[in-house]
Protein: Branched-chain amino acid ABC transporter permease
Amino acid sequence: MAAAIGAIGLNLLSGGAGQLSLGHAFFLAVGAYGYAWLAGEPGPGLPAPLALVLAVCLAGVAGGLFSPVSGRVRGIYLGVATLALVFIGHHVMLNAESVTGGYNGRAVAPFELFGFSFTGQDPELLVLGVPFGAEERLWYLGLTLLAVAWFTARNILRGRPGRAMAAVRDSEVAASVMGVPVARYRSAAFVVSSMYAGLSGALIALAFRRIVPDYFGLVLSIDYLAMIVIGGLGSVGGAVAGAAFVTALPLVMARYADALPIVDEPGGPGHVVGPTEAARYLYGAAIIVVLRYAPGGLAGLLRRRPARARPEPSPTGTDPAAGAAPPLGTGPHVTPLPVPSAQRKESRP
Structure:
């Protein structure tokens, strides 16, 4: 669910506004470390809901500081510029030990709302005789946040901002002629995408309970690009489906590694491909297949409908059931026009 929220944000940026970003992992890290520092010790020790909101806003501020670049740079140059954010962020995470904990990372404070802990075991809660532990509680928290992110993104894409971003994506020149402030909408899309990434990073931090800098690297940004390409650019549901595919595939490969001939079990001798590497090979191949045979991704495949059989038009361009059309100028409803006498006279030199 955390990956789905981040993928929705990246899809708003890339699929909605047509901007390439390789720095999504940086904004995920801002949200994760922002929450861990604001809600933990050392740190302000703020209430968890307030720390979560401030972490999302902090990611939005980071996106806003970069938005002047995103508003003026486009194409592969924007991708290179956002790629620099990943390496700068990794350097900061390793050296700002008072905030990030350095190479070993830092623990994440549990999330509590009105005294109810979503990531702790106390107080013990039983639902139909089944212990309702930290994973179950966090699952429903992630489900709620994903629903809010889903409906917000759909309203953005279906409203006036979505139409403006689509115009910018299709043709910036045409959008400018129609009165759309191109730079403003490009910057706004980057800010909104960064806030989605911040929420996703905070939820990842709650799920992992300890975050380290090496997790938020370039590979994570590429994973999110794979999610939106496989799911379908410009589709909220496609982003969720792509996130589920990319995140679940390594778990499935690890679960059935003993039954697959070329996949090694987790912690095995390493003579063959591990589950994570095998999963990346598979969804890399899935990207190639999608780009070649289904450019719309999983969402495009679901939107396809078999074409209805239509009768072929007759050679004369008329409906075959109605018969052949009468020659032009004939028929019971056509009255020949009288020809003027001047036109009947032969012209003489």
Observations:
- Residues 182-208 form the longest helix (27 residues).
